[in-house]
Design brief:
The protein has 11 helices and 15 strands. It is of the alpha+beta class and about 325 residues long. Mean pLDDT is about 85; it is low at about 1-20.
């Protein structure tokens, strides 16, 4: 879950320039690399190549350069597949240790901000199975960095990166600690708008209407299913979303397990075409109803998928954002095993 969160949510990184020229150097080690592997360092916000890294027998050949501003970067394998994130290219020497097989940064440091990010990565890579404790630790670390660096590019990056494990109020409080310039950035304005929508549809709130079409083109809406005396699990997905397609078989299994006990499941597609959605529905054997051509982003603040919302029989929102086994645990509380 932690890595999924990091993989799906990096596309939303918000950065802002510092208006200064920096001299940087990058060195470190790479596990599970070919003896003469080549990697790319990419500025994630501007999608520009920063450097090409040569790996020789598990070590990065020290590489240096100049940038007009600090950058939050990721390392990509050949073909820009298998992103490994994230570190900050800033003044000084950055030292990283990565594992190509596991796909994440193991150690990071060398410059002031990267030294602080090291604590975050230690928590992320920990064996802390208590999600509540993990979330609290992550919030404490991120909050400390944002308070210390309100005008640094790393702060909005961390807020965007971790927003799905914080409450909307916590994320909005962090945004309020940013410098006025970063708060006014387009990325943060969009994030504030999304978080406000999530606040309006958080757990305990009554559902908001969401209109769309059935697969055969007829008008339909969330109110056709929600608030009608049944527990309803909505699964937000898309044909282009790999993690969504990985989770759909599990959702189907839960539907088959609990449908006779009163569970309704509704699929809601996100930014997809009916033709592509139909193809996946048929391919995966989905039998529960679907809502196409809806706008969950502007109603429920959905910015990352897969995303689920569980509604109570009266239409109130019970849970948001459950994944995998956590969905089944919640359903077991309601229906029993």
């Amino acid at each position: 879950m932690k890595q999924t969160i990091i993989t799906i949510l990096l596309a939303l990184v918000a950065v802002a320039g510092q208006g200064q020229s920096i001299n940087w150097k990058l060195e470190g080690t790479v596990k599970n690399a070919a003896p003469t592997d080549t990697l790319s360092v990419i500025d994630m916000e501007k999608q520009r190549s920063v450097a090409t890294l040569l790996v020789r027998d598990g070590k990065i050949v020290p590489t240096s350069g100049t940038l007009d501003e600090p950058a939050v970067c990721g390392i990509a394998k050949e073909g820009r597949r298998g992103w490994i994130i994230a570190f900050v290219i800033e003044e000084g020497t950055v030292n990283i240790s990565i594992d190509l097989e596991k796909g994440y940064v193991q150690q990071i440091g060398g410059t002031p901000v990267n030294n602080e990010l090291a604590e975050l990565f230690r928590e992320q890579n920990s064996n802390n199975s208590d999600q509540t404790s993990y979330n609290q630790n992550m919030f404490k670390i991120v909050s400390g960095i944002v308070e210390k660096h309100p005008g640094h590019i790393v702060s909005p990056f961390l807020i965007s990166l971790c927003k799905s494990i914080y409450t909307p109020s916590e994320s909005l409080d962090l945004i309020a600690k940013l410098s006025p310039e970063l708060q006014a950035s387009l990325e943060m304005e969009r994030l504030k708008e999304s978080l406000t929508l999530v606040q309006e549809t958080e757990e305990g709130k009554m559902f908001k209407e969401l209109a769309g079409e059935t697969p055969d083109g007829k008008p339909t809406a969330l109110s056709d299913f929600v608030g009608r005396g049944n527990y309803v699990l909505t699964d937000f997905w898309a044909s282009w979303c790999g993690p969504c397609k990985e989770e759909i078989p599990y959702v189907i299994k839960l539907y088959e397990k609990y449908k006779d006990k009163g569970l309704k499941v509704i699929g809601i597609t996100v930014s997809d075409t009916p033709e592509k959605s139909d193809s996946i529905v048929k391919q995966m054997g989905i039998t529960f109803p679907q809502i196409y051509k809806s706008t969950p982003m502007s109603i429920y603040g959905v910015t990352a998928i897969p995303h689920t919302i569980l509604f109570a029989p009266d239409g109130k929102i019970l849970k948001r954002g459950l994944r995998g086994e956590n969905i089944e645990k919640e359903l077991e509380k309601i229906f029993g095993e």
